[in-house]
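hey so i finally got around to running both of the ones u sent me last week. sorry it took forever, my laptop kept dying halfway thru and i had to restart like 3 times lol. anyway pasting them below in the order u listed, first the sequence line then the structure token line for each. didnt double check formatting much so if smth looks off just lmk and ill redo it

first one:
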Amino acid sequence: MTCCGPLFWWAQLCSSLLVFFFSSFPCLAGDADIYQQQLVEKAENLRLWQSRQWRALLHMPLAESGESRIDSPGFFLSANGVHNPTAEGAATLASFFDPTSPGREDVHPQCRYPARYQWLKTALSFDSELLFEQRCPQLTLWIDAMDPVGATLIFPEAYLNNPASMFGHTFIRIEQNNGRSALLAPSVGFAAITDEQPGVGYAVKGLFGGYYGEFTTGLYVDQVRAYGALENRDIYEYRLGLTAAEATFLLLHVWELQRATFDYFFIDENCSYQLLALLEVARPSLDCTAQARFASIPVETIRLVTAAGLVDGVAYRPSKRNVLRQRVQSSSYQQKELVMALASGGIADKTVHWNGESDDLRAEILEASIDLFLYEQAVTHGKHDADSPVLRHLLSLRSQLQVPPRRVAVPMPAVRPDQGHGAARISSSVGVDATDAFFEVGLRPALHDLLDPGPGYIDGAQIDFLSARLRYYGEQNQLRLQTLNLLDIVSLAPMDTLVNPVSWKTRIGMQQMRYTDVGDQLTGQASVGLGASKNLAKKVQGFFLLEGDVLVSDRFDYGWNVNLGPVVGVLSTEVDRWSFLLQARAGYNFLHYDSRIWSLQFIQALHVAEDFSLRLAVTREQEFADPITETVFSMCWYF
């Protein structure tokens, strides 16, 4: 018989080896499904899908009914993942068992969702023999290049000329262990994705979620160039107390957010709010997003992070303009004139009449000229032209001097933006309008006006967003909306010998105006003004604007009216806790026959405490009726 021949025994041996092989690797023999189910049950028993860490990874609020703020369905592995963390958790565990195609390791779910994988691996103690850990070459190279040991929250202060940055901006710099300059460190930020230029339409669409936003990475030096040099914004660096492991985990989550987009809202779900959510991934105990208010203003989010004890220190990078001011602080008028002539290209020949200045002083004048040239280029063109003949001439003159460059030390302001008054304000007022007494309450969600406590804010700058005042007249038993400001911005940037910025203002809102036939009536208003401001003394500046208004009311023949006229005033921004505004305005109404309006107003404020002020305002004005005088006493609380 042949059954016991050599071929029979060879077949028996091979069969036994195959049985031993598959019995030794139950995952290959079909036990992967069993182990997967065990992991799902263990996660449910540990309530991992309800934990702060898992919800942070899905960008879900802690409330059980909360839905993820991520608006791209492709980010989720479960069809119900956007609002069901349990379903997303089960789908995530299942995906980790997916097979891998050679050369496509980086698209495997373990590599696409490395933060999820790392956290679940630790929480569930994955068995590497039953769940094979995938190689992720691209992710490994990216993390090694980032080399994270910590993180810093960066705050470029408000920039009023860009609607997207009028409250400031925030992003994160990744601290590295490679000994290179911090300027070369990577940065992580969140921004709206749009090709539109900043403007009114841009701001309106941003208010109502007309754009989507996403997380991006770049180099810190590019951010410093854009904000500090081109937009002339001071930059504050808040070093965060994240460990190297926490910073690495944050970056693992940034990697998996490459496929995530968010509806972008200018006021709440903006750059600062999304960065808070990112920090909660690194340290879930923070829970800062739950404390964020209606308006997620960058400076308010910094206060939240500071209050949570996450800030270890603060550094300051002054704007190009502030460096220039410090550089010429002790220069004479003649020296400043020479700086202006050099920067404008007015001295084109190679021989400059230095009037006996030393090489050190010549170097300072040339360095100031270079700074002034770059500043004016940034203001005029929004960029620097490295090939400009004027710049090359200045650099050539500077290179001829055997004097090392002088670093200008600009001291950090005594009060940082996060140490100023609260952005929200509520006020309670009593007053007399002609002969009628009234009581008034006001609410402003954000941010600052010209007479609010000054420390921590830019002098002469005002951003009044969505503020309203309700007024009640007791004798008439009448409650009415006195004013509503959708947006009220004022920028009184003072001119000096070297720079001459334009002062401007704009307002969109409604206010009560007085008419001869019907008395007070709510009138729509859109206004813009341009002019100049100049320092008269320390903390005191005078200003002049030419302002135009478009007024909307059924009291006008055409339903609307155009008013144009000058505004002149003096502003003092807090000297010994006291500030004042004296302002006069006149205007001619083009579409209302022989109608002129004017007003004279004096407001003074006493800042009793950091978050409490008293105000007294006296106004004499004429609108579309006889002149009246109004006196208002207010108490203002900031929070």
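and the second one:
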Amino acid sequence: MTDRPTIETLLREGRTFPPPAEFAARANVSDPAVHERAEADWQGWWASWAERLDWDRKWDTVLEWDAPWARWFVGGRLNASVQCLDRHVAAGHGERVAFQWEGEPGDELTLTYADVLAGTCRIANGLKSLGVGRGDRVTLYMPMVPELAMTVLACARIGAVFSVVFAGFSAPSLRDRIHDLEAKVVVCADACWRRGQVLDLKAVVDEAVADCPSVEHVLVWNRGEGAASASPGTERDRSWREVVAGQSTECAPESMDSEDPLFVLYTSGTTGKPKGILHTTGGYLTHVLATSNLVFDLKAEEDVFWCTADIGWITGHSYVVFGPMANGVTQLMYEGAPNHPRPDRFWELVEKYGVTILYTAPTAIRAFMKWGDEWPNLHDLSTLRLLGTVGEPINPEAWTWYHQVVGGGRCPIVDTWWQTETGGIMITPLPGITELVPGSATRPFPGVKAGLVDESGAPIEGPGAGYLVVERPWPGMLRGIWGDPERYVETYWSRFPGRYFPGDGARRDERGYYWVLGRVDDVMNVSGHRLSTMEIESALVSHPAVAEAAVIGVPHELKGQAPVAFVLLRQGHESSDALAAELREHVAAEIGKLARPEAVHFAPELPKTRSGKIMRRLLRDLAAGKAVGDVTTLADPSVLQQLKTEYEGRE
């Protein structure tokens, strides 16, 4: 390992990374013209992937498009759980491992595809015994356990619309989502483990459903010894053992229309009211089947795939449940935190289970950097052959650290851009053909047409920066906001009519590669110049003392807005006024004097959700002296008070 170039050297040289010859020789995509071929007949390209699914009735029309409303594979009928389970078992792969699961305390479980099919059918029959049928809504509030994945598939099997709520949301947040969906049944765990502590999930559910008259039953799965709820429960409770355990392992799947709702996933809205993002069946399955196969280069008979996301987020829907399982691959699922009981828990699991593909968030990678190289270096990570990132743009230093320290300099990295609303990956490298540039998501996935426009909506050709848009429909796209079609049109299609606007800015370089700069509300106007917070954050973390950074814009009497930085230091570095000044000048040297932060605040931690995203909105509220509002999605709400003390002390 000592003969590899240093991260600083690689960044200074601006090194690019072509696909390793050994990887490219076996890659699922080896034709460099794949993008052009897909573009020549983009509807036919998507249809070729849909044909890999098992349809009860093939579609009549690939696409009906009446902007902004899309219908994909019109007239086709299929069942989502069949794509993930039955067809693999029928093909003779029932004994292939579907999930290697490990709980945070160290308990283990191995489930084959045949096991998951049997468990899914039991749960489906149990839900039917509670009166759940086609079109009914079911809310799930569970930790990362196989029963969550099986319950998702069970809902799909009987035609019920499911909505997973991350098991970390507060009772009011859960209540609002249940109420908006008018869920008939809530399926929950009594408790779960997190950093050695037992979280009482059932108590949260009991508080939430007290104000939800649509809920007829609460189906409770018991996490196990040492992780019980203290809640006395309610008269609506039904035990898993009573309802599910004795059910038949056979359940005929409902034949669903391609455009029948599959799930609703709530995401935060700027109005404070969560948006219920609606995804349907045929197009969504086609999108996640294709992207899982090509982006992650999945080899079902060889790979152990680990997407570290919780199923409560869209990444877990698309790249834990439906995409990988439709491809029939073996996966690792882990219940707990990456640093419990030690900061090497992830690397211990990679070594133990022989993980070949790791897909995680840039914020997690920056945390690993902060904890130090010694933790991954304790373990044999040689089984890894591909790495991926998801959730937000990754800064070049974190990319390079991930490539060198975790991937040993040999693993391509797929830096993926997409959203809850897009359903699946939209901009990404294809690891067998794409020359990688640290920090760039590179090119749109074949069949996806992205673009850049200026403030007036005029297209930006060639290299340039502007608003990122999607120029035409794609199969995995959201079909609306649950119960609020006007909000769907206003939020995503009104700014640039005829184009989908995700709310992100981006630039495109001379190669045609995209560099996603983050939310346009994370763009500052400093003395008439637009600056991306992501660019300033990348400059800060390129300094050897900085592990993570979050930048916000604050009002400034002369400049309009000025950047303010919150910085998390790497081990071995201490905060000081001298270091703050050094970091300000470092940014000025990297980007220009205009980008120099007005102030640098050293933080013990940054406010993050449990999925690892930095909540810059809370930092803006803190800087403006506003009440910070709901912080139930934070991994550690106490971080805000520490930041407030630091901020007020350095003003």
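quick thing i noticed on the 2nd:
Residues 113-129 form the longest helix (17 residues).
anyway thats it, ttyl
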